[in-house]
TrEMBL record:
Residues 118-292, 411-689 form the Amino acid permease/ SLC12A domain. This is Solute carrier family 12 member 7-like. Its main location: membrane. InterPro entries: AA-permease/SLC12A_dom, KCL_cotranspt, SLC12_C, SLC12A_fam. It catalyses: K(+)(in) + chloride(in) = K(+)(out) + chloride(out). The chain crosses the membrane at residues 112-135, 147-170, 191-212, 247-264, 271-290, 410-430, 450-476, 496-514, 550-568, 574-596, 608-632. It comes from the Eukaryota. It comes from Strigops habroptila (Kakapo). Pfam families: AA_permease, SLC12.
C-alpha cells in the first residue's frame, strides 16, 4: 500500500538559538555534563577521521533525546557524508588501519578506470619473457597436445584464483597492499605474513628471471660479441654463458636499483612504452603466421642424416661444392674431417649420411602440425633430431664434442616444463595491487583481471597451435636458434622482421624487471609496517616521501641470488613455488569465508562458489608438486617457519580474519561433542579454575600461583584464571579492564595458557560462588579449583577472610569439583628454578579418587620438578597389617605405572597431650571472645593478641614440653601384635597418668572443652608431628584436606585445625578430591 509523506517545517528554535547564541544555563549545563558519559569517540575503519565542527552540528532540540550519545554515535547524515567523501589510500602509504588516529591529508580522487588501471597492467605482467624465449621450445619438446595441457592447467589455475580474488577484492574496500592485504585480512596475520613474504620472494625472483631474460636476449640475439667470457674448450659454452649472465646481471641489477631509487615515477611512466613493445611483438607474431599461409619466410635448416646442424660455424649446407668442374670441400667438411682433401679421414656418421636442407618455417598450410603433436623429451647433451628423416647409424665410439650439432642443454620432462612455463601466467595481481589508484576498485578489479586472463590465455593457447602448425619441430626444440643462424626462434616467424620481436622482447623484459624491483620493496614495506613480523620492521622505513629504501636494498640482494644461479630455467621453478603458494591461499581464503558464511562476507562479485575456490586451491597444490616436489617442500617449510615465528613472536592483530571464524566454528563443534557426557577416567585431567587475589592497584598478590599452574598444566587442558572485584559493575568497568590486562600480562610472563575472567560482585563470597558455578562453557568447564591459603586469615580486615575460604571449600564440594589449596605459595618455585634433588611427598590418608597420585606425576613432567622423587606415605591404624598394606600399595602403584617409594607409618593411640588441650583452649577462647565482643577492628586485634600472649606466657613450660614430645620421632613398627599394643598402651598410661591428673587439677577449664574439638586438634597435632618427622625437608608435601564441619559454627576452628596440621612445612598442597575416580590401572 503506497504511503505518502509530508515534510512539515518545525519551528523548534528561538531567534537567539537560530543565530548560534545559546542561553547561559545551557552552557553551564554542558560544562557540568562534560562530553556525553565520558565514552571515547569510536574510530570507524571506513570513515575519515576529519575533525568536525561540533559547535553547530547538533544545534536544536529535534534530537535532544540522543544528544548525550552524539559523541560516540554520530547522526546518520554525518556518517553518510563521511562515506561519500571517502577515498582509498595510494600505494606506498601506511594502511588506513595504522593511520586511523591521525588527521589524513587531502588526497586527490583517483580517476583510473578498468582498462588503464587493471586490464593493461595485468596484460603487461602476464605476457613476457617466457612467451618470447621459451614457449617455442616448450611446444617443440612437449608437443602441441601436452603443451596445450600445460598451458590450460596453468591458465585454469590463474582463472580460478582470479575468481576467488575478485570475490575478496569486492568484499569491502581494498587499500594499497593488494594480495597481501587480501590474504592477511582474510586468513589472519600468521597466514598473511607467511604468504605475504612468500609473494614478496616470488616477485623478487621474478625480477631476477626478467633480468636473466634481458641478458640472454642481449648476448644471444643482439650482440653475441659483447660476451666477456668465451668458451676456451669444447663443451664450455654453457659455463661461459652462465658467467656472462652473472657479471652482466649484477651490473644491470645495480643499474636498475639506482633507477628505482632515483625516480619511481619515471618507471611508471615508461610502463606504457614497455607494454606497447609487448603488444607490437604479439601483433608481429600473428602477422607472420598469416603471411606463412601464402609466403613462408626463407629460413633453411641444414641436416646431416636426421641430425640438426648449428649454422654458426659454416655457411654452405653441403659436403663439397663444384665450381668450374672442380670439386671443393666446404667448411662443413673440414668440421667433420681431419683435412680439406677428399681423401681425408672423416667422422663415421658424416660419411654414411647425406647433408640435406629443409625449410625451418614451412607455413601454416604445410601440415607440419601433425609431426609436432607428440612430445620429444631428451637427455642432457643429446642431439636435436628430426623424426621420420632417413639416417644411417655410425659407430658408437665417435665423440660428439666439437662437432657442429645442435645439442640439448638440459634434460627435459613434463613436470619440469610446467615449472618453467608457470611464471608466464603470473601477474594476475597487478590490478589488485593498484586498488588504491582505481576509481571503482570493486568493479574494475574483477572485470579487468578476468578479461586480462582470458586474453592472455587465448594468446598462449593460440600461439601453441600456431607455432606447432608453422615451425619445423627441430627448430622448435632448438632453444637458442643455432640452426637458424642464432636468430630468436619466435622472431623467425614474425613479420616484417625478426628484429621486431628481439627489440620488443628486450624492452619488455627490461620493463618487467624494473616493475618487479619497484613493486617488491613496497610489498615488503607494507608487511613491515603492519608490525606482524618483528625482524623485518626496519624495512618499513624509507625516504621522506615514503619510498622504501631499505626494502629496495634487501630486494636487490635477494635478486642477486637469482642472478648468481644464472639459469633462467633454474630460477623459473623457484618463483613458480612462491606464486603458487600465494594463489593457493587466496583460494583458501575465499573458500573459508564462503563456507563460514560470516555476516561481513558480502562480495559484490557474485560469480564465485566455494567449490571453484577449493578446485583452484587443489590445482595450485598439485602444480607445486608437479613442478618440483623438493622446491615445493622447501617453499612450504619457509612459509611454515614464518607462520610459527609470527605465532610465537609476532604482534597480535585482530583483523576479523576467516581463520579466527574457522577456529570459532571448530570450537563450537568440539564443545557440542564434549557436551555429550563427562570424560572417561583415562581422559581426566585437572581443568583448573585459578582464584587470584588482587591488591588495590589491581595487581596479582601471589604471582607464584600462576607459576605453579603452568607447572601443573604444561599448556594442556583448560585453565581459567578468575578473580573477584567488590562493588557494582557500572562503577568498576575501568578497574575490571585494568585487572584483566594485568592478569593477562602476568599469564603471558608465566606462560600460563588459558582464559581470564574477572567478576564484579557486591561481596567476595558471592563473586567466588559465581565463578565456581559459571566459569567455562559447555563441556569445557573446570573440574578443579586452585587457590592460595589465606595466610593472614586471623586479621579481620582481610577481604579474603576465613569465611570466604571455608565457603569456597564447601561450594567446590557441592559442585563436585576437586580443590587444591597451596599454602606458603610465595615459597613455591618460579618457572625458571630447577630442583636438582629432593622429594615430592604424598600423605595418602583417605582415598580421594587418586588425585594425590596423579598430581605429582603431572608436576614431574615439568622441568622444575623433573628430578624430584615421589614418595607415598600412608597411615596404618591399630588393626591394620602394615606389611600387607605396603605390598598392596606397591602393587597398586605398579599397575598405575607410577614410580614411587612406599612407606607405611603406624600411629599408635596415646592419651591427648597437654599441648593439644592448650591449643584447643586458646582456639575456643579466641573464637568466643570475638563473637561476644562488638569491638572495632583494631580493638579486636589487640584483644585477640592479648589473649594469645597471656595464654602463651602462663603455660609456656608445659606447652614447650608437650611440643617437644609431639615433635619427637614417631615409633614406627612394621606390624602390630596384641602384646606390643598392650605393653605400649600401659607404658603410655603409666608415664602420663600422674602428669595429666595434676594438670587437670591445675586447669579445671580443660574439662569444659568441646571434646569433638579436642579430638580433632589431637589428630591435627599427631599428624603434623608424623609429617614433620618424615617430610620436613621435602620440596613439596601433598596432604588430604579434611572437609569443613557440617555445623557452620565451627568454621573458624576448622581453619585452626588446618593451620596446626600444616605447621612447620615449607610448601604444602592440600588436596580435596571431587568424589570421582581420576586415575585407573586399565589401559
Amino acid at each position: 500500500m503506497p504511503t505518502s509523506f509530508t515534510v512539515v517545517p518545525v519551528e523548534a528554535q528561538g531567534p537567539a538559538e537560530r543565530h548560534g547564541e545559546r542561553p547561559q544555563e545551557e552552557e553551564d549545563d554542558d560544562r557540568d555534563r562534560g562530553a556525553g558519559d565520558g565514552i571515547a569517540k569510536e574510530n570507524s575503519p571506513f570513515i575519515n577521521n576529519a575533525e568536525v565542527d561540533k559547535g553547530n552540528m547538533y544545534e536544536g532540540k529535534n534530537m535532544a533525546l540522543f544528544e548525550e550519545e552524539m559523541d560516540s554515535n554520530p547522526m546518520v547524515s554525518s556518517l553518510l557524508n563521511k562515506l561519500a567523501n571517502y577515498t582509498n589510500l595510494t600505494q606506498g602509504v601506511v594502511e588506513h588501519e595504522a593511520d586511523e588516529d591521525s588527521k589524513r591529508k587531502e588526497i586527490k580522487v583517483p580517476r583510473m578506470g578498468t582498462f588503464i588501471g587493471v586490464y593493461l597492467p595485468c596484460l603487461q605482467n602476464i605476457l613476457g619473457v617466457i612467451l618470447f624465449l621459451r614457449l617455442t621450445w616448450i611446444v617443440g619438446t612437449a608437443g602441441v597436445l601436452e603443451s596445450f595441457i600445460i598451458v590450460f592447467m596453468c591458465c585454469a589455475c590463474t582463472m580460478l584464483t582470479a575468481i576467488s580474488m575478485s570475490a575478496i577484492a569486492t568484499n569491502g574496500v581494498v587499500p594499497a597492499g593488494g594480495s597481501y592485504y587480501m590474504i592477511s585480512r582474510s586468513l589472519g596475520p600468521e597466514f598473511g605474513g607467511a604468504v605475504g613474504l612468500c609473494f614478496y620472494l616470488g616477485t623478487t625472483f621474478a625480477g631476477a628471471m626478467y633480468i636473466l631474460g634481458t641478458i640472454e636476449i642481449l648476448l644471444t640475439y643482439i650482440s653475441p660479441s659483447a660476451a666477456i667470457f668465451k668458451a676456451e674448450e669444447v663443451g664450455g659454452e654453457t659455463e661461459a654463458m652462465l658467467n656472462n649472465m652473472r657479471v652482466y646481471g649484477t651490473c644491470i641489477i645495480i643499474l636498475m636499483a639506482i633507477v628505482v631509487f632515483v625516480g619511481v615515477k619515471y618507471v611508471n611512466k615508461l610502463a606504457l612504452v614497455f607494454l606497447a613493445c609487448v603488444i607490437l611483438s604479439i601483433i608481429a607474431i600473428y602477422a607472420g603466421v598469416i603471411k606463412t599461409a601464402f609466403d613462408p619466410p626463407d629460413f633453411p635448416i641444414c641436416l646431416l642424416g636426421n641430425r640438426t646442424l648449428s649454422k654458426r660455424s659454416f655457411d654452405v649446407c653441403a659436403k663439397f661444392t663444384e665450381s668450374n668442374n672442380e670439386t671443393r670441400t666446404t667448411t662443413l667438411w673440414r668440421l667433420f674431417c681431419d683435412s680439406s682433401s677428399l681423401n681425408a679421414t672423416c667422422d663415421d656418421y658424416f660419411n654414411l649420411n647425406n647433408v640435406t636442407e629443409i625449410q625451418g618455417i614451412p607455413g601454416i598450410t604445410s601440415g607440419v602440425l601433425i609431426d609436432n603433436l607428440w612430445s620429444t623429451y631428451s637427455e642432457k647433451g643429446s642431439i636435436v633430431e628430426k623424426k621420420d628423416q632417413p639416417s644411417v647409424a655410425g659407430s658408437e665410439d665417435t665423440k660428439m664434442g666439437g662437432l657442429p650439432y645442435v645439442f640439448t642443454d638440459i634434460m627435459t620432462y613434463f613436470t619440469m616444463l610446467v615449472g618453467i612455463y608457470f611464471p608466464s601466467v603470473t601477474g594476475i595481481m597487478a590490478g589488485s595491487n593498484r586498488s588504491g589508484d582505481l576509481k571503482d576498485a570493486q568493479k574494475s578489479i574483477p572485470t579487468g583481471t578476468i578479461l586480462a586472463i582470458s586474453t592472455t590465455s587465448f594468446i598462449y593457447l593460440s600461439c601453441i597451435v600456431l607455432f606447432g602448425a608453422c615451425i619445423e619441430g627441430v627448430i622448435l626444440r632448438d632453444k637458442f636458434g643455432e640452426a637458424v643462424n642464432g636468430n630468436l626462434v619466435v622472431g623467425t616467424l614474425a613479420w616484417p622482421s625478426p628484429w621486431v620481436i628481439v627489440i620488443g622482447s628486450f624492452f619488455s623484459t627490461c620493463g618487467a624487471g624494473l616493475q618487479s624491483l619497484t613493486g617488491a620493496p613496497r610489498l615488503l614495506q607494507a608487511i613491515a609496517r603492519d608490525g606482524i613480523v618483528p625482524f623485518i620492521q626496519v624495512f618499513g622505513h624509507g625516504k621522506a616521501n615514503g619510498e622504501p629504501t631499505w626494502a629496495l636494498l634487501l630486494t636487490a640482494g635477494i635478486c642477486e641470488i637469482g642472478i648468481l644461479i644464472a639459469s633462467l630455467d633454474s630460477v623459473a621453478p623457484i618463483l613458480s613455488m612462491f606464486f603458487l603458494m600465494c594463489y593457493m591461499f587466496v583460494n583458501l581464503a575465499c573458500a573459508v569465508q564462503t563456507l563460514l558464511r560470516t555476516p561481513n562476507w558480502r562480495p559484490r562479485f557474485k560469480y564465485y562458489h566455494w567449490t571453484l575456490s577449493f578446485l583452484g586451491m587443489s590445482l595450485c597444490l598439485a602444480l607445486m608438486f608437479i613442478c618440483s616436489w623438493y622446491y615445493a617442500l622447501v617453499a612450504m617449510l619457509i612459509a611454515g617457519c614464518i607462520y610459527k615465528y609470527i605465532e610465537y613472536r609476532g604482534a597480535e592483530k585482530e583483523w576479523g580474519d576467516g581463520i579466527r571464524g574457522l577456529s570459532l566454528n571448530a570450537a563450537r563443534y568440539a564443545l557440542l561433542r564434549v557436551e555429550d557426557g563427562p570424560p572417561h577416567t583415562k581422559n581426566w585431567r585437572p581443568q583448573l579454575l585459578v582464584l587470584l587475589n588482587l591488591d588495590s592497584e589491581q595487581l596479582v598478590k601471589h604471582p607464584r600461583l600462576l607459576s605453579f599452574t603452568s607447572q601443573l598444566k604444561a599448556g594442556k587442558g583448560l585453565t581459567i584464571v578468575g578473580s573477584v572485584l567488590q562493588g557494582i559493575y557500572l562503577d568498576k568497568c575501568t578497574e575490571t579492564q585494568k585487572a584483566e590486562e594485568n592478569v593477562k600480562a602476568l599469564m603471558g610472563v608465566e606462560k600460563t595458557k588459558g582464559f581470564c575472567q574477572i567478576v564484579v560482585s557486591p561481596n567476595y563470597r558471592d563473586g567466588i560462588s559465581y565463578l565456581i558455578q559459571s566459569a567455562g562453557l559447555g563441556g569445557m568447564k573446570h573440574n578443579t579449583v586452585l587457590m592460595a591459603w589465606p595466610q593472614s586469615w586471623k586479621q579481620t580486615e582481610n577481604h579474603f577472610s576465613w569465611k570466604n575460604f571455608v565457603d569456597a571449600v564447601r561450594e567446590t564440594t557441592a559442585a563436585q569439583q576437586a580443590l587444591l589449596v597451596a599454602k606458603n605459595i610465595d615459597l613455591f618455585p618460579t618457572n625458571q628454578e630447577r630442583f636438582t634433588e629432593g622429594n615430592i611427598d604424598v600423605w595418602w590418608i583417605v582415598h580421594d579418587g587418586g588425585m594425590l597420585m596423579l598430581l605429582p606425576f603431572l608436576l614431574r613432567q615439568h622441568k622444575v620438578w623433573r628430578k624430584c622423587k615421589m614418595r607415598i606415605f600412608t597411615v596404618a591404624q591399630m588393626d591394620d597389617n602394615s606389611i600387607q598394606m605396603k605390598k598392596d600399595l606397591q602393587m597398586f602403584l605398579y599397575h598405575l605405572r607410577l614410580n614411587a617409594e612406599v612407606e607405611v607409618v603406624e600411629m599408635f593411640e596415646n592419651d591427648i597431650s597437654a599441648f593439644t588441650y592448650e591449643k584447643t583452649l586458646m582456639m575456643e577462647q579466641r573464637s568466643q571472645m570475638l563473637k561476644q565482643m562488638q569491638l572495632s577492628k583494631n580493638e579486636r586485634e589487640r584483644e585477640a593478641q592479648l589473649i594469645h600472649d597471656r595464654n602463651t606466657a602462663s603455660h609456656s613450660a608445659p606447652a614447650a614440653k608437650a611440643s617437644m614430645a609431639a615433635a619427637a620421632p614417631e615409633k614406627v613398627q612394621m606390624t602390630w601384635t596384641k602384646e606390643k599394643f598392650v605393653a605400649e598402651k600401659h607404658k603410655n598410661k603409666d608415664s602420663n597418668a600422674s602428669g595429666f591428673k595434676d594438670i587437670f587439677n591445675m586447669k579445671p577449664e580443660w574439662g569444659n572443652l568441646n571434646q569433638s574439638n579436642v579430638r580433632r586438634m589431637h589428630t591435627a597435632v599427631k599428624l603434623n608431628g608424623v609429617v614433620l618427622n618424615k617430610s620436613q625437608h621435602a620440596q613439596l608435601v601433598l596432604l588430604n584436606m579434611p572437609g569443613p564441619p557440617k555445623n557452620r559454627k565451627g568454621d573458624e576452628n576448622y581453619m585452626e585445625f588446618l593451620e596446626v596440621l600444616t605447621e612447620g612445612l615449607d610448601r604444602v598442597l592440600l588436596v580435596r578430591g571431587s568424589g570421582r575416580e581420576v586415575i585407573t590401572i586399565y589401559s
